[in-house]
Amino acid sequence: MSPSPDRRVAQFFQIDDVPPAPVSEPGQLAGCDGRLLSGDPATGQQTLLLEMPAGWSAPVGGGGGTLELLILEGSLTVDGRRLGAGGFAALPTGCGPLVVTVREAARSVAVWSPHFGPSDYYDSRPRVVRTVDLPWEPTVFPAELQAPGRLYGVWSKSLRLPDPVRGDLHGGPKGLLRIVVLVSGFVGDHRQESHPGCWEEIIWLAGDFFMPGTGRQAAGSYVGNPSHHRHGPLLTQRGCILLVHTDAPADFCFHEPPVPESLISAYMDGVSWLEDPVHGPSPEGSMAVPLGGMSPPASTG
Length: 301
Fold this sequence. Notes:
The protein has 1 helix and 22 strands.
């Protein structure tokens, strides 16, 4: 499907398929280009693939909203601290501006949230970290999924803080931002899932992944799941790394009937360990809610 930043409609595309344009918001990023991946007109929040030219420099942060940057390639300095690929910087509402200087042309996922208040996240203090230095934490899922064989093998690093996990509800009051790993051979709950209370976007950073009815994901794939949109199950043969972002605490609802085991096996047994994963549509004959369709609210089961 054609890329669209509309968070009301399910999305599936490659991030490089979005045309670049000069960044207008936040104004502190003037001189950079961005590919708009999603936006919410009600709050002004935007997610961009930010392209920063070598030598660009400006004071960033301080007021008007929270800017979060995850560097995908290239390097920059934030207040003199060098960050390369995998570096993360959060400049929250209320913090003092810090000088950002691009050393090598950099591409980053940028989340701009003008509706975040000083007390929402980060305690108004900048967070500048190398994600490689952050610990992996096991992800805790709702009690109904703690049975053997269901949703084990999910690990995450919290970028946006605080990021509480309460079993059936994940993230702070205005959403979460996490790097997530699904281990090799992971097969989630065989049912489809939805998130009634939030919108969710996922950017694939590495590895293979398949969601019946959505398609095959690889590095650079983008999926947007509106509230109540049914998607899944989650399958990976070789393992994958992804960036997950929501606009409210993430809740979980699971729907019968389960996806047939034959469809799951067809993917898991058909993946090559020797070829790079590719982005693409679902194989012919796969079943699920059509992409772009909205499932009606439904209770678990």
